[in-house]
Amino acid sequence: MRCKSASRDCLPAGGGRVRIGEVAEQAGVSVRALRYYEEQHLLPADRSAGGQRQYPDSAVERVRLIQQLYAAGLASTTVREVLPCVDSGEVPPGLLDRLVDERALIERRITDLLTVRDRLDDVIGVVRNPDPGCAHGQ
Question: pLDDT tens digits, residue range 28-64?
């Protein structure tokens, strides 16, 4: 099975190299987060002769993807399994089933959030446009 992804070249061989501070700034994350991603084997880095981390130009997009997957509620172990799929376009059958389940959970969370948003809209509407015939707080 193939993944639909525009980021198959997440970790190209060669190309430009970016220092950790630049990746952190461009991706809007902390340097500490990047080190954590590296420890979790989510974001590989090369080392310069002086020992400084160097990332491919595509690291910023990869970090954004990692952030999105975390924000969607995926655990780091699942993210670690998903990233090779993004890179290669191949999904192992067992992982596909788990991803379908994760997607269903995300759908439920979206539905719940939309329900809460609608209720908040109702409350905001009542506060902004109170019914003059309704006595509040009495």
Answer: 999 999 999 999 999 999 998 888 899 998 999 999 9
Angstrom distance (rounded) from CA 112 to CA 116? 6
CA dist 104 to 94, 95, 98, Å? 16, 14, 10
CB 29 within 8 A of CB 67: yes
Of 26, 19, 60, 68, residue with least CA distance to 43? 60
Give dist(CA 106, CA 74) in Å, integer: 10
C-alpha to C-alpha distance for 7 and 64, rounded to whole angstroms: 11
d(CA 116, CA 22): 38
